[in-house]
Design a protein that fits this description.
The chain is α+β, with helices and mostly antiparallel strands. The chain has helices spanning 11-20, 34-43, 78-94; strands spanning 46-49, 54-57, 104-106, 111-113.
Length: 114
Amino acid sequence: MPRNPAGEMTKADIVNLVRQHNKVSTIVIGNKSRAQLIQEISQMGYRIDHGKKRIVRVPGKTDKKVIINKVGAFGATKQAVKKAKKAKAKAALKGAGTGAPAPVLVGDRGEVEL
């Protein structure tokens, strides 16, 4: 097992911080390595301050929110999920050739009325 650089927290310390943090606590820890945990925290717009032993928000990186265990794959942004839902609704409109009346797309919010 590789040693941590001097002055940096161990995996156990990082796991405790993740569990205590309000937003980052959604990370599923499982069998992830220390490096994978740090990478996932940075993808959420945070970084680890090893000196003060805390998780700090990185300004400017939180504008694209990462969705975990929601619609779409891990790391999908809200905009990507909205596009996927809209494309699915349009595909439902095109593939309505079953003889039944086609659903009507209502407004620009992507709602489907049946």
